[in-house]
Amino acid sequence: MKAKLSAIDEYTRRAKELSIDNRSLVVPSPTDDIKGDKVTDIEGKLYLDTKYVYPKGYNFTWQDSQLGQYGLLVRKDGKSLFETVRTKTS
């Protein structure tokens, strides 16, 4: 998500600077679902800070969650779920 938000910022900057024959683009405002989104680093973990939750959706921080018994085992070793899966597939 951090890469996507950075790409949106970069494309917006380029579009605003673009001028062909003294004509420029009008860059629309971000949609409500991503307006103000940012990725923050808290103690080495990346968190998506968003203000919008889709109807019938959930707003949770998966970094601090455990996925049942498997999640308990993964966290006991100090590894994230993704690190464990990556190790087992290597």
Unreliable sequence segments: none
Strand content: 15-25%
Secondary-structure-derived class: alpha+beta
Average of the residue pLDDT scores: 77
Q: Label the overall shape.
A: elongated
Oligomer: single chain
| Main β-sheet description | 2 strands, antiparallel
The overall strand count is 4
Count of DSSP-assigned helices:
3
Structure description:
- The chain is α+β, with helices and mostly antiparallel strands.
- It is built from three helices and four strands.
- It has a two-stranded antiparallel ribbon with strand order 1-2.
- Strand 1 and strand 2 form a beta hairpin.
- The radius of gyration is 19 Å and the shape is elongated.
- The protein starts with a helix and ends with a helix.
- The relative contact order is 0.09.
- The model has no long low-confidence stretch (mean pLDDT 77).
Q: Secondary-structure blueprint of this entry?
A:
Elements lengths: L1 H16 L1 E2 L2 E2 L13 E5 L2 E5 L18 H9 L4 H9 L1
Antiparallel strand pairs: 1-2, 3-4
In short:
The chain has 90 residues and is α+β, with helices and mostly antiparallel strands. It has 3 helices and 4 strands, in the order αββββαα. The protein is elongated.
